[in-house]
Amino acid sequence: MGSSIRQEQKQNTRKKIIDTAYRLFSERGFSVATSVIAKEAGVAHGSIFAHFPTLNDLLSSLLSDFGNRMGSSLHLLAKNCVGVEDFLEGHLDVLEEYEPFYTRFISEKNRLPDEAKAAFAAIQSTAAFHLSRVLEREAEKGTVKKLPIHLLFNTWLGLVHYYLLNREFFADPGESVIKRYRAELLSAYLDLIKRESEE
Amino acid sequence: MKTCIACGMPMEKPSDFAANDPNKDYCVHCARPDGEMQSFEEKKENLTKFIVRTQGFDESAASEVAESMMRKLPAWKKYFDQEKDAL
Questions:
Q1: In chain A, whose CA is at the least distance from the CA of B72?
Q2: Average of per-residue pLDDT values in chain A
Q3: Among A36, A50, A152, B3, which residue's Cβ finds the most Cβ atoms within 10 Å?
Q4: pLDDT above 70 covers what percent of chain A?
């Protein structure tokens, strides 16, 4: 009994550290010191290292959690979508939900541990998997231009990432870039890829 | 909800499962035509090809990504453990 309570407390502390780190990284980027994370989480500094021996361990664990959560959200949205427009709307919903952390993540990815690269690729592979399925269906119906799937995916992601990575030019601090531009981005992209119906 | 032990995809409908069989632990994309699960090498090759086709990555980068995804999945644990033991 005693040990199961201790186990639960340990899990709670671990969760508190991860949640606080997630919030602080979203707000300030990944260079936040562990002492700040400990203070904000209300745990002793040493407690962070009891759970995560190095900062990389904390980052790896957090990024892997994040990748899983975003992956599940993408799977969930794909379940209910019929066409490409539906899927892209849902993709923007997911990105908006995770926007502050995701933006930090894609802009600082190359300076983070290898786990970041793996989490990034896993998230994009899930999105690409579902988008490729809806695009193939649309291509069969002749509603989308016949372009290689990877270019259709990369063009969409490149467009959305451009706005996220340069957010200071597109939105006020604290404002969601996705929310502000979603309608415009979506309709422009659909215009680019849709095939004109033959008169 | 079950997730595929070989690729991590959530499986809900019978058609998500290998051979339409909800008792299976792996999905339709990870099965061979005869319903058996693909081997480590087959899965890695298919995943790599899929990444190249849908994201346009360089083949060796795609192969690394495929391996890092497989590393997290229960079906392939023993391959990576063996690799670790061999070191």
A1: A64
A2: 92
A3: A152
A4: 97
| ipTM value for the complex | 0.88
**SS3 letters for chain A?**
CHHHHHHHHHHHHHHHHHHHHHHHHHHHCCCCCHHHHHHHHCCCHHHHHHHCCCHHHHHHHHHHHHHHHHHHHHHHHHHCCCCHHHHHHHHHHHHHHCHHHHHHHHHHHHHCCHHHHHHHHHHHHHHHHHHHHHHHHHHHHCCECCCCHHHHHHHHHHHHHHHHHCHHHHCCCCCCHHHHHHHHHHHHHHHHHECCCCC
User: Can you give the pTM of this predicted structure?
Assistant: 0.90
Query: Whole domain around residue B44: which residue ranges?
Result: 2-86
Count CB-CB contacts under 10 A for residue A116. Answer: 23
Number of domains within chain B: 1
Question: Which residues of chain B have a CB within 8 Å of the CB of A122?
Answer: 65, 68-69
Q: Phi and psi dihedrals of A130, rounded to 5?
A: -70, -40
**Does one domain contain both A123 and A49?**
no
Residue A2: pLDDT band by 50, 70, 90 thresholds?
Answer: low
Task: Examine residue A199 and state whether it is found in any structural domain, yes or no.
Answer: no
- Given CB atoms, is A127 within the 8 Å cutoff of chain B? no
Residue A199's pLDDT is 46
H-type helices in B1-87, by residue range? 40-55, 59-70, 77-86
Query: Chain B residue with minimal CA distance to A129?
Result: B54
**Helix or strand holding residue B11 (H, E):** strand B10-11
